[in-house]
Amino acid sequence: MSRYDNLINGQWTAAATYSPNTNPSDLSDVVGDYAQGDAQDVQAAVAAAVAAFPAWSTSGIQARSDALDKIGSEILARKEELGELLAREEGKTRPEAIGEVGRAGQIFKFFAGECLRLSGETVPSVRPGIGVEITREPIGVVGLITPWNFPIAIPAWKIAPALAFGNCVVLKPADLVPGSAWALADIIHRSGIPAGVFNLVMGRGRVIGEALVNHPGVAAISFTGSVGVGRGIAEACVKSGKKVQLEMGGKNPQIVLDDADLNQAVELSAQSGFYSTGQRCTASSRLIVTDKIYPAFIEALQARMAKIKVGDARAAGTDMGPVVSQAQLEQDLSYVEIAKAEGARLAAGGSRVACHTGSGKDGFYMAPTLFVDTEAGMRINREEVFGPVASVIRVKDYDEALAVSNDTPFGLSAGIATTSLKYATHFKRHSQAGMVMVNLPTAGVDYHVPFGGRKGSSYGPREQGRYAQEFYTTVKTAYTLA
Hints:
Strand content: 15-25%
Helix content: 25-40%
CATH superfamily of the largest domain: Aldehyde Dehydrogenase, Chain A, domain 1
Largest sheet: 7 strands, mixed
């Protein structure tokens, strides 16, 4: 079995212990043994990043751009291989995994360009004979804590802007899926960037994450994960004066109005709710459907769900892979029981299933699950399940649909299916979400535009696109006497 070390100060560094990375499609398949770092590893990684920061932060922008472009090119050249690894360790289907790897490569190439586009302002002072320059500078050492559901794309959209704008990085990937992060770290390591600029420390969140958040040498933390952990990180960062960026939960609504194209509405609802096994923060788990189309929509969605093949993520013909872990599967199934107890009607799924390929592989497979005739106040409609579970809420009209869609502590993504320009325009303005989709799945965003939400979903500046500079840089105002 191969062992995979941490990357600290440009060297692959052994850890005291290692943990197996298991394929959720086939529990007998171990991807490799990955380092389980400790607080001392974090200390060493941060020290290396602090030492590398003065030279890297003032280095030529062309060198930074070339390094990021090289990283992006290698990712794209190896997207089939890396997609296979991602599907193997995380459980999303091979086509989805390859698409995610492609997105990671494009992100690095986008920020290779952003290195060259960072701009400032020169403005006159209100005082005669004085000039004013407004510029952006890197903030220092950034700790990046990433989740398991997008094990290469989310690290990419944090690492790339951090490096592009002259920061140094310590990455702590999710403990469930270290393989894709390690492969990305290896590509970055071989890109020619100086030792200490990028560091990888794998291990448990309560060990590595806490050490990063509490380290005085870390200037900022960017975190994607659960609401509870995110709030704890925010509190700790505020106390120590660190800059903080959080992407957390979602309970995303998908409205289907009476005038919607039924086939389109069903397809985008299926894509949003069940693909990637529903394990996307932008997944639509609340389907809000108006009266007249409700019966036809339920019938058509049940028929569409019956065609979803659940199985090995890497097998041809698989539409939905396994749940990522035993703990996540147990959580998903527990919400099925909660929904039943609250009076929701189970219309499809609701149980663990066998692999559709008939291979006999033991994996964390769950049927796509649908509850109907639910009430907005039920826990199934208030709390994030993070699995292939969706519920339908019946409403009388658009106004009630809008009110129900906004009645949530979250505000990441929201969708509407309608042929009405009036309702589409009104929803785009009045939806209390950071991202709004009209006749499109709620899951699926571009790499060159901002990503983020409102309310309990996000905190701090947006990620991705040129808006990433708001987090990864600080503004300086300089005055000069002519």
